[in-house]
Amino acid sequence: MYRQYFELIRYRVFVDLKSESAQAYLGMLWWVLEPLLYLGAFYLIFEVFLQRGGEGFVGFLLCGLVFWRWFDATIKRASASIQNSIGIINQAYLPKWVFPATEVASGTARFVFVLALFLLFCVFYLGQVSSVWLSISFLLLVQLLLICGVSFTLAAIVPFFPDLRKIIDNTMMLLFYMSGIFFDIDKLNDELKFWLFLNPMAVLIQQYRMVLLQQELPAWQALMYILFLSLVFFVVGLVICHKLDKRYVRVIN
Amino acid sequence: MSDQLLIRMQNAGLKYNMKTAAGKRREHWVLNSIDLDIFRGQTVGLIGRNGAGKSSMLRVLAGLIDVDRGVVENHAARTVLLSFQLGFNNLLTGHENAIYMGLLLGMTRWEIESKLDEIARFSELGEALEQPLGKYSSGMRARLGFSIAIQVDADIILIDEALGVGDHAFREKSVAVMKDLIKSDKTILFVSHDQQHVKELCDRVVWLENGRIVDEGTPDSVFEHYYEYDHAVVSLAANLGVTEAEVRSHPNSAVPLDWLRKFRGNLKSQWNEEDEIYRSRKMFGLRIYRPARTVVCSQIVDEECGACTWVENRRQIARGERVEIEACHAGYVKFSESLLSRLNLTEAQYRETELCQRILDSLVRVGKSHMARAPRISGPLGDR
Asked: What is the pLDDT of residues B303-340, one digit of tens each?
C-alpha cells in the first residue's frame, strides 16, 4: 500500500516539474535561472547598492538564502496542499499526509538544483573543497525532517482554519528577518541570541555557514534540539492527518 | 451471482452543519436512516433528484467519509469510486494523465503501463495521446477519462453519472462496456438520471429523496413510483401556486410513497362512483367513461382506444372494455402534447373543458388539504 503512495508522490513530483517547465519558453532552464535571479537580486541590493557587510558577505548571505528558500517555499506550498486538493480528496481515497509529502518532495527536488549550484559557487568563492562539507548531509536530513514536520502539521490544520494561511505567510516573512540571513546572530547580545536561536532555521543556517564557509564541523547539541522539535512536529502532523482523515471531505467545500 | 453480502448499511446517517442566513447552526442530514444490503454481483442503480444524497452515498461507500450515525460495513477487498476526469492536468499529455489518474484510482504503475495500448485503442485517441490535454476537446477528455476508468479492477465499482459521454458512437460503445462489466462478477452501484440506461443495466434500483430511501426494487416498479411522484409534485405545485421544493420538503411528503397512496386515494374519492378512471402509461391520462356528459371526454376515449392498445396490469385491454384500476395517476395534469394534438385542442382550450376542470378542481382540493394538514414548522411553509 505504501509503495503505491510513494509511487504516486514520485510521479506527481515528475508531473509538477514537467508541467511547470512546459508553461515557459525556457522550460527546464528555469530550475536554474529562477534561483539565480533570486540570489542575484539580493546580491545586487546588498553588495552593489547598499555595499553592506564587507568581505565575505556574499557567501554569508547566499548561504542563508539558499537554505531558507527551501524551507520557505516548501512550507508555503505544503500548508495549503490538503485544502487545494479538494478535487482529488472528494473522489479518491488517499491518506492525507500524501498531499504535504508530495509538496515537500517537489520542493526538495527543486532545491537540489539550487544546492548543486550553490556548492559550485562555494568551490569558486572559497577556492577550495573540504571533506567537512560531507557533514551537511546530516544538516540536510535534519532540515528535511523539520520541513516535513511543519508541513504536515500546517497542512493538517489549515483546512479547518483557512485564515491560517494569511498568518502563515506573514509569520514566514517575520521568520525570514529573524533567521539571521542578513546578519550574524552571534554578534548580538546574549539575551537576544537566546531568543533568536529558538528558531530552528536560525540555528540551521548558522550551522550551514559553519560547515560550508568556515569548514568546521557542526555543533551537534544544537542540532539535537532541532531534531527533537522536528520529530514532535512530524508525529503531531501525522497524528492529526490520521485522526481527521475523513473529516476533510466535509470541511473543504 | 452469489449470496455473499458485500455492503450493509444500517440506520446510516450523514450530517453536515449548515449555517442559516441568520448565522445559526443547523444540522442537515444528507443521508438519513439508510438501510441497504448489497450482494456480490448485483448491479444497483441509484436514482433521485439533485441533492437527494446520491453522491454522498457513493462517498460513504467508497470510504471517503464516515457516517455520523448507524453502521456501514464493507466486506469488499477493493472498492473504487470511478470519477472520469480525476486529477486531470491540462499541461500533461493524455498518456501522462492516464498514468496519474490510474495511480490515484489505486492501480500500480505496472498495471497502467500494461493497459495503455488498450486505453489508446478504446478511446480512439491514438497519436493524440501524446498531445497535452489542454488541446483536447471536451469529448476527447471524456473519452480518455472513461477509457482509463474502465481499466480499474475492483470488487465494488461506484459510478457517478457515467454514461452519456462523447458522441453517439462512443456512447453506445461505453454502454456496451458497462454491460460487460455488469455481466462479470463485479458489484456495481451507479447513479444515473437516464431511465433507459438504468432499466437496461440494473437488476435493482434504489430511489433516494431528501437523504432517505423512498423505494427500492425492480427498475420498472421503482421508476413508475418515481415518475408518478414527480408528476404529482409538479402538478400540485403548478395548481396550488407553490414551488416544487415546498411540496417536496413539506412534512406531509416526508414519506413519498405513503403520501402518494393517500393522494391517489383522496383524489379518487373526489369522483363519484359512476366515474371510472383509466390510466395509460404513455399518456398519463385520466378519463371518465361517460361520453354523454362531455363531448371532449368521449373523444378522448374514442381516440385513445382507437389509436393504441392499453396495457394495464400486464394484460391487453380491449377497445371499450371497462377496467377498474386501483387508483388514478396522480401526475395527470401534465398535458401530453400528442393527446392535445389528436384532440385538435390547445392546452388552454383543453383546460376549459368540463373534464379538465373537474380534474383540476379535485386536484386543488386534495392538494390544499394535503398542504394544510401539516404540523407547524418554521419558515414560509408554516404560515401557509
From this structure: 333 222 222 222 333 444 443 332 233 333 334 454 55
Return the closest-CA partner of residue A245 out of B377, B206, B120, B63: B63
Residue B322, helix vs strand vs coil: coil
Entry pTM: 0.78
Do residues B203 and B42 lie in contact, with contact meaning Cβ atoms separated by under 8 Å?
A: yes
Residues of B in contact with A91 (CB under 8 A): 64, 81, 83, 86
Instruction: State which amino acid sits at residue B247.
Output: V
| B354-372 vs B219-240: helix crossing angle, rounded to 10 | 90
**Closest by alpha carbon to A63, among A198, A206, A166, A197?**
A206
DSSP, res B353: S
Within 13 A of A176's CA, how many CA atoms are on the CB side? 14
Residue A150: pLDDT band (50, 70, 90) is very high
| Residue of chain B nearest A1, judged by CA positions | B106
- All 3 cell numbers of residue B318? 380491449
Q: How far is Cα A205 from Cα A213, in angstroms, rounded to an integer?
A: 11
Q: Which chain A residues contact residue B66 at CB under 8 A?
A: 246
Q: Which of A65-69, A78-82, B144-148, B338-342 has the lowest mean pLDDT?
A: B338-342
B67, closest residue in chain A (CA to CA) = A246
- Tell me the residue type at A74: T
Element (H, E) at B145: helix B138-149
Please answer yes or no on whether A88 and B108 come within 8 Å at the CB atom: no
Cβ neighbour number for residue B132 with a 10 Å cutoff: 16
The ipTM value here is 0.84
DSSP letter for B253, please: G
User: For cell 457517478, what's the residue?
Assistant: B160
| Residue B137 burial by Cβ neighbours in a 10 Å radius (0-12, 13-18, 19+) | exposed
Please give the distance of CA B304 from its chain centroid, rounded to a whole number: 29
**What phi, psi does B73 have (nearest 5°)?**
-110, 135
Residue B279: closest CA among B303, B251, B310: B310
| b/e per residue A143-173 (b: at least 16 CB within 10 A) | bbbbbbbbbbbbbbbbbeeeebeeebeeebe
The identity of residue A105, as a single letter, is A
Set of chain B residues whose Cβ sits within 8 Å of the Cβ of A25? none
Cell 514536520 sits at which residue?
A149
Cβ neighbours around B258 below 10 Å, total:
12
Give the strand pairing for B310-312 and B315-317: antiparallel
- Cα separation, B30 vs B81, in Å, equals 19
Residue in A closest to B90 by C-alpha: A19
Q: How many helices (H) and strands (E) in chain A?
A: 12, 0
Which tens digits make up the pLDDT trace of A8-28?
Answer: 999 999 888 888 777 777 777
**Rounded-to-integer distance, Cα B53 and Cα B195, Å:** 18
Cβ–Cβ contact B296 with A under 8 A? no
- Around Cβ A218, how many Cβ atoms within 10 Å? 20
**Burial class for B265, CB neighbours closer than 10 Å (0-12, 13-18, 19+):** middle
On whether the CB atoms of residues A42 and A118 are closer than 8 A, the answer is no
- Residues of B with CB below 8 A from A250's CB? 16, 65
Q: Which residue has the cell 559557487?
A: A121
The three three-digit cell numbers of residue B290, written as one number: 361517460
Q: What's the gap in Å between the CA of B357 and the closest CA on chain A?
A: 48
Task: Determine the 3-state secondary structure of B186 from DSSP.
Answer: coil
Amino acid at B100: Y
